[in-house]
Amino acid sequence: MTAQPGSQIRIIPQKHDPTSKVNFGAIITGCDMNNLDEDDFQAMRNAIYVHGVVIIRDQQDLLPINQYNFVKRLDPEARAEHGWGTSKEAQEITGITGKLKWYTIPGTPAVQMFGQGYQGNDHYGLKAITVQGTSHDNYHAETLPKENIARGETRFVVFHYDGIVYGAHPSRVTTLRSLRVPRGPPLTVRWDDGSGRTMKAQAGATAFYSNEQLYDLLTPEEKALADNSYWETAPHPFVWTGNGKVRSQGVGLVSSEKLDLNELPPWSVDKVYKYPMVWVNPVTGKKGFQVRAEAVRKLYLKSAPGAEECIVEDPEQIRTWLNEILDRIIAPEYINIPSVEEGDVVAWNNWGVMHSATEYPEAYGVRTVHQCHIASSTPPLGPYDSTSTKGELKV
Ligand SMILES: [Fe+2]
């Protein structure tokens, strides 16, 4: 389909395997992200929200500053800073995400280099850097032996949306440009949850599932509950969740062990948010079930607008309730792992899909990506206009 009369941009829905139930994803061609007029920009924005994930081909010449400009154009009021913050302090307080070392591309406020391996003597001004790839070892309770990784088996590291959800709202859209793609036979992603499930993935690929599809998998009663309920984050949630590990299928927690609030770095109540359980797609109006397992400290459950509210604070009760819901979507038929080529930019609606990195063996070579997202200037939209942004934590 052509975006606009006269436009070169083509947006083609991704073709999925006949066994797949994935209903999102599109390929975009004919786009020059260095030069997007307003009509083409709006077509791109629309495509991200309609298709959830888009793979924009042929962006080999995209300047890092223009990758940032595209993300900023999607949220002009947002702070000119990466969604995780970029200071040393920010790296320390992001806890589990802080285990990833990131490198800002000089001359940009929010484009980070990730990947794996030696990035050359001078990569856009970053000198002689060797990047440690993302490993599931930091997140999973039981890890795959290194021999399995070397022979092409892997795991989803952890499904998440981007953002620190403490003093900064989740980023609206994330963009990921592949500059170098590892080469080799497809890897086998293992669930290792007793189900025997596996699926194939390109080395270094990013996997996605849709929270809008997850919402559709809820019963009518659960949808009513989700529509009317809220969840509250912990202060410094990724420090608070401490050593709590993720299940081997890459989503949901193994235990409800948490740090005590007084063990956390200094925090303030005004940065602790209360989010709707359901976020509404700003373009299509579709609803997505959006609770972040590692960050949720409290549930405010209500089955109808006038119903009595039930507050749940028991971490074990929250964990088991949430895992049962997440189990419905963490199945091969709901996961989209688009193959990418060098020069592709993958852009996604961070308020509608979850994504995960996959580990790959060193023998496949170097991976280089430029990633950009910025904390949203506004909280996500709930199904009603009663979106609350401040938690009710008392000190
Ligand atoms: Fe991410």
TrEMBL record:
Coiled coil: none annotated. It comes from Aspergillus granulosus. Residues 24-372 form the TauD/TfdA-like domain. Keywords: Dioxygenase, Iron, Metal-binding, Oxidoreductase. This is TauD/TfdA-like domain-containing protein. The lineage of its organism: Eukaryota, Fungi, Dikarya, Ascomycota, Pezizomycotina. Its cofactor is Fe(2+). Belongs to the TfdA dioxygenase family. It holds the Pfam family TauD. The keyword Iron applies. The keyword Oxidoreductase applies. InterPro entries: TauD-like_sf (IPR042098), TauD/TfdA-like (IPR003819), TfdA_dioxygenase (IPR051178).
